[in-house]
Each structure stands twice: as C-alpha cells, then as structure tokens.
Amino acid sequence: MIYRSIGGVKASRVAQGCMRIDSLTASQVDALVKTDLECGINFFDHAFIYGGGSCESKFGAFLAANPSLREQVLIQTKVGIHDGYYDSSKERVLSAAEACLSRLGVDYIDFLLIHRPDALVDPQEVAEAFDKLHTQGKVRYFGVSNHNSLQIELLNQYLGEETKVVVDQLQFSMTNTTMVDAGMNVNMENEAAVNRDASILDYCRLHGITIQPWSPFQYGFFGGVYLDDPKYPRLNEKLQEMADQYGTTKTGMVIAWILRHPALMQPIIGTVNCDRVRQIAQASDLSISRADWYELYKATGKTLP
Ligand SMILES: NC(=O)c1ccc[n+]([C@@H]2O[C@H](COP(=O)([O-])OP(=O)(O)OC[C@H]3O[C@@H](n4cnc5c(N)ncnc54)[C@H](OP(=O)(O)O)[C@@H]3O)[C@@H](O)[C@H]2O)c1
After folding, report:
1. CA-to-CA distance for 217 and 167, rounded, in angstroms?
2. Is residue 168 part of a domain?
3. Residue with CA closest to ligand 1 atom 27
4. Which of 60, 112, 247, 248: disulfide with 139, CB 3.0–4.6 Å?
C-alpha cells in the first residue's frame, strides 16, 4: 500500500467506506477492519446518516473491543444532512459532530466533512463550528463532499488556517467521469464539454485538496455495479484483458485506473467482502500505462475530441 499525506497525516491511498457495514455482525466488522489494516488501509469513511447512525456505532463497538487500534486508524465522518434536508448551521454541525464522537466512542475525529452543499449555508457559521471543534481538540482536519470549487473557495474565505478544506469527496468511477470529461472537451458543443463542477479537478490539484472518489464501482446515482453488468460489455472485456496483463482482477483494475490519475485521488471503496479488499489493496501498487488508461476510458463508450 502506498501512503500520502492528507492534512498532515499518513493516509493510505485507498480508504474503506463504512456506509454498508450496518448489515454486518460484530465479528464481520472485526474481520473487515482487520483485513483492511493487514492490507495497509488505515482510513475509514463514515457519515452521520449511514445506517441511521448504526455504521458509526458498529465501528465504535469494534474500537471499544480493540482500544489499541484507535491510534492506527484515521476516522473520517460527515455531517450536514438532517431529516431529509441539508443543514450546515453552526448549531447542527456542532451537535452532529458530538453525536458522531459519541457513537464512535472516540475523543477526536481525524477528518470532519460537510456532506453536501447546503443552499442556505452561512460560511461564517461553518467557520465558527469548525474553529470550536478544532480548538476543543475534537476534530483534527476538515473537508467537504460533493462541493464545487467556488463553494470551497467561499468556505475557505471564512475558515482559519487550521481548519481549511483539505478533502473533497466526489462521485467518480469509470462510468462517472464528468470531472475528467469536461477538461478534455474544452470549448466543444458536445455533452462531455458541460462543466458541472466549476472545474473541481483542476481546483483541487491547484490547492492540494485530496479528491476522494465515492462509489468507484457504481454507475449512475447508485444505479448498480458496472462490473459484469451486460450494459457494459466492452468495458468488462477490456478490464478482464488488462487485469490478466497486469496480474490482477477486474476489481483491482478499476482501482489501478483511478489511482493512475496524477491528482493523487483517494478512492473510498464500499465493499465489505474481505477478498475484494485484498484484491484492491494489491492493485493499489500497480502502475498502468498512459495508453491503457485511455483505452479503458474509451471502453466505457466515451470518445476523445
Ligand atoms: N459523499 C457521498 O455523498 C457518498 C455517497 C455514497 C458513498 N459514499 C462513501 O463511499 C463509499 C463507497 O460507496 P459504495 O459502497 O457505493 O462504493 P462501491 O465500492 O462502488 O460499491 C460497493 C458495493 O458494490 C458491490 N460490488 C459487487 N461487485 C463488486 C466488485 N467486483 N468489486 C467491488 N464491489 C463490488 C459491493 O458488494 P460486496 O460488499 O459484496 O463486495 C458493495 O455492495 C461508501 O461506503 C461511503 O463511505 C459517499
């Protein structure tokens, strides 16, 4: 596993998403997290809303049973979605962060993100909440999710040096590549040219913000897994061909493709299958060629202008 610095800490290039652990028993959570750690994955992504709070609680129960592991893991969680609407008010950010700390059973959270842009956001309030949590030692680093570059710029105008955005978690997979498509179709009239995110990819690269691709194996908005899906015959054929060539699996190949992008993205994987975690970790050390990266991109049906 390769590591890189996010904020100021050593984070694995691949992170384990915990959105789907609510269906697991305590021993399955134990096996998953220990497999992650054996594979070098030290970064765990949560959210206030996952499983209605049960994902954080299950992870907290794991840590309670394995207290020595707290210092070996980086815990990230997200707040700002509440009862079917978005709420990044100071009061809500503070109360949700306290709830996350309590469910996780920890004294501090390593990374706290605003889950989705709140149409009614007051950046001064976010700044006050972040500052309080940081000063109290309850959160080390901050970030956002599903935000575009101007929304980050707005927040950063108000955030102090210690609480500036270091992460933006965004949907990105082999079939959801809008942030890459727009950059290759500049000034064109085609659909791929539509800039949907105020050039978030370039913005994050310019400012050293880590992009965390969520749902790296899904098409659409939770449309399903594109691996082995008959809707993507050419992609699956090419993935298998290259997996054989690079000595990995199609699952591993997807992660190698995301990691090949020089923006140093940190994909958040959602599998709870230990064997898939191992395939992904093994593939995270692969370096695929530029030609193969483009060939896979085109195998999704996309074209280059
Ligand atoms: N910020 C946001 O708005 C946002 C939104 C969604 C998710 N997230 C984060 O991103 C993480 C990942 O999301 P996700 O779970 O949708 O991502 P994913 O890694 O694309 O999907 C994982 C799901 O695909 C299944 N799957 C089937 N075949 C697979 C294969 N060959 N390889 C890998 N997975 C396969 C997995 O099943 P098995 O478990 O049986 O392998 C699992 O149910 C979440 O846990 C969460 O932390 C963030």
Report:
1. 20
2. yes
3. 225
4. 112
Domain assignment present for 58:
yes
Is the full-model pTM beyond 0.70?
yes
pLDDT digits (tens, 9 = 90+) for 249-285: 999 999 999 999 999 999 999 999 999 999 999 999 9
C-beta separation of 13 from 4 below 8 A: yes
Atom of ligand 1 nearest to the CA of 78: 1
Can you state the angle between helices 250-260 and 274-283, rounded to 10 degrees?
40
256 burial level (CB within 10 Å; 0-12, 13-18, 19+): buried
Contacts of 216 (CB under 8 A, 6+ apart): 172, 173, 174, 254, 255, 258, 267, 268, 269
DSSP letter, residue 164? -
Residues in contact with ligand 1 (CB, 6 Å cut-off): 17-20, 45, 145-146, 169, 214-218, 225, 227, 251, 268-273, 276
In the chain, the number of structural domains is 1
In a domain, 36, yes or no: yes
Of the pLDDT bands very low, low, confident and very high (cuts 50, 70, 90), residue 17 is: very high
What one-character DSSP code corresponds to residue 209? P
CB-CB contact of 141 with 110 (8 Å): yes
Q: In terms of residue numbers, what domain contains 56?
A: 11-232+258-271
Atom of ligand 1 nearest to the CA of 173: 20
